[in-house]
Task: inverse folding
């Protein structure tokens, strides 16, 4: 009987100790993070999350901490964990969702990023910048989007200069993207059909244009030589002519594609510049 | 297999520790059971919970063993570099840290850093015989770096310390004097004189013959094109490709000479590694 009572008393004493344990473990979790032992941090936090004594707020804190560690290793997993936060009343909910929106923006998941921003309770200027850049990116990638829509978002982005460094470089890249948007892929292809490589020069890739012209000139001259020597039945003409034709058609297609590639390259520069600037303001 | 033997050798060196004020029973059992991540966290908890630098150092060393066993050599090196080496620590412990760093660098194929760690042993201890325990690792590192003279000198010392008869000294002499090696420059020159001859000299007669045939084919094409009145075709496809193949063939002959020499060196390294690890293993038993 005494033993049962003693066990009962010990059980009552043990419960508060167990409840306090998370606060004690936070120091160790921080130590792991500061020592850049992210995998170990995730493992430890995942084992902690199995504790059934934790309340929902504590569980959400653990989920955020797991995402924080994953952010250093694998951003997809960080997004997955941030999506597991169950209560928007958690003190770190807004900062966690800002981070989630930024990671999604970085992964070119613009719609997802906008949805994450919608979840945030009190939207601030940082959230607005994220939202505008997402919309600007969507308009860049949407073929049906009108040019003035993109310019409109760009004007709004100027308000975000407080978060962005080297705005002159960024503005230069945006101007270049606007110029490229005015160009036509079909025209690039037609130009390359007229003069091989000219379409690539038009798309902003002069070195590629020169290389294409040189290669086609070599095969073209050999085909012409064979044709003028013995006519279209000459085996040399058939061989070189076939090679020339394949290169010629590929070059037309490639020139039209090079405009798209150039646009993506310039957009990637803007994207990288913007995301890298906004990343500095992440607070976990 | 060799990596496993080296790991086992080092795990036995664990006995250098005296009695610990911390119980490693649970952490060690996790590592032995292959639950490395749990073991790493458990070691890290000990490090976090204790202010004693010796306990921290011992835990970090044990943690590096677990990381090494999981083949995470770079992580093991990071753990070892977190150990704060104090002057009042025993030479055997300091030796163990340096040795572990060198070994992990060796296992991660970073041989020049391994050599650097081993060279620190010369100046770290008043008793020069302490560093002799890692002489086998020095030889393996010098072998990997193809520093044959140093490897031979260390091997001669190793033989003396272990009362061994000459097995590899003459082979080292051959490597130092590059006996049986093919000269890169000769291979290149021969290929310029007769296309394909450099490849044949490097020990790849078949590839040399193919190269000769390719040159002959392109030369014939160029000649016929000229004769039949196709100068553009003769210059662009004929001479253009002929020059590319001619220059490329000479470079390829050099590559093949290197390949031949590497094969000789790698064969020796593999044989030697198996031999020296067998001796070290027998010493432990």
Result:
């Amino acid at each position: 009987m005494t033993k049962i009572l003693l066990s009962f008393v010990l059980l009552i004493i043990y419960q508060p100790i167990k409840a306090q344990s998370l606060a004690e473990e936070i120091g160790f979790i921080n130590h792991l993070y500061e020592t850049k032992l992210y995998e170990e941090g995730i493992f430890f936090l995942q084992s902690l999350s199995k504790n059934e004594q934790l309340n929902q707020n504590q569980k959400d804190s653990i989920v955020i901490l797991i995402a924080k560690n994953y952010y250093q290793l694998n951003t997809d997993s960080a997004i997955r964990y941030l999506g597991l936060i169950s209560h928007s009343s958690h003190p770190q909910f807004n900062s966690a969702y800002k981070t989630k929106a930024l990671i999604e923006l970085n992964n070119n998941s613009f719609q997802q990023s906008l949805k994450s921003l919608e979840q945030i309770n009190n939207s601030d200027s940082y959230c607005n910048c994220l939202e505008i850049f997402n919309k600007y990116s969507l308009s860049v990638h949407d073929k049906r989007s009108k040019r003035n829509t993109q310019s409109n978002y760009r004007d709004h982005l100027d308000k975000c200069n407080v978060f962005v460094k080297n705005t002159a470089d960024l503005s230069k890249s945006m101007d270049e993207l606007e110029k490229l948007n005015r160009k036509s892929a079909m025209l690039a292809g037609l130009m390359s059909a007229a003069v091989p490589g000219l379409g690539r020069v038009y798309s902003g890739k002069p070195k590629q244009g020169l290389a294409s012209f040189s290669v086609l000139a070599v095969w073209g001259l050999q085909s012409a030589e064979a044709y003028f020597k013995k006519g279209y039945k000459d085996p040399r003409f058939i061989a070189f002519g076939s090679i020339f034709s394949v290169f010629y058609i590929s070059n037309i297609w490639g020139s039209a594609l090079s405009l798209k590639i150039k646009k993506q390259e310039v957009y990637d520069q803007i994207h990288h510049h913007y995301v890298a600037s906004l990343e500095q303001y992440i607070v976990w | 297999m060799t990596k496993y033997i080296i790991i086992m050798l080092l795990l036995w060196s664990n006995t250098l520790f005296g009695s610990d004020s911390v119980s490693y029973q649970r952490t060690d059992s996790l590592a032995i059971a292959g639950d490395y991540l749990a073991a790493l966290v458990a070691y890290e908890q000990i490090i976090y919970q204790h202010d004693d630098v010796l306990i921290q150092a011992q835990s970090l060393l044990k943690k590096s063993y677990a990381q090494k066993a999981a083949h995470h050599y770079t992580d093991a090196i990071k753990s070892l570099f977190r150990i704060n080496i104090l002057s009042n620590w025993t030479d055997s412990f300091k030796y163990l840290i340096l040795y572990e760093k060198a070994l992990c660098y060796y296992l991660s194929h970073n041989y020049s850093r391994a050599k650097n760690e081993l060279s620190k042993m010369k100046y770290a201890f008043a008793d020069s015989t302490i560093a002799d325990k890692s002489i086998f690792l020095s030889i393996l590192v010098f072998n990997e770096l193809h520093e044959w003279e140093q490897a031979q000198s260390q091997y001669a010392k190793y033989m003396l310390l272990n009362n061994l008869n000459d097995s590899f000294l003459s082979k080292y002499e051959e490597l130092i004097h590059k006996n049986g090696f093919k000269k890169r420059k000769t291979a290149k020159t021969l290929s310029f004189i007769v296309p394909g001859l450099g490849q044949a000299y490097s020990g790849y007669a078949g590839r040399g013959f193919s190269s000769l045939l390719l040159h002959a084919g392109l030369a014939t094409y160029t000649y016929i094109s000229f004769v039949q009145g196709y100068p553009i075709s003769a210059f662009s496809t004929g001479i253009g490709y002929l020059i590319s193949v001619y220059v490329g063939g000479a470079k390829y002959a050099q590559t093949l000479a290197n390949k031949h020499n590497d094969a000789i060196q790698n064969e020796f390294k593999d044989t030697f590694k198996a031999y020296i690890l067998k001796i070290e293993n027998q010493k432990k038993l």
Remarks:
- The CA atoms of residues 67 and 78 of chain A lie 4 Å apart.
- The two ends of chain A are 51 Å apart (CA to CA).
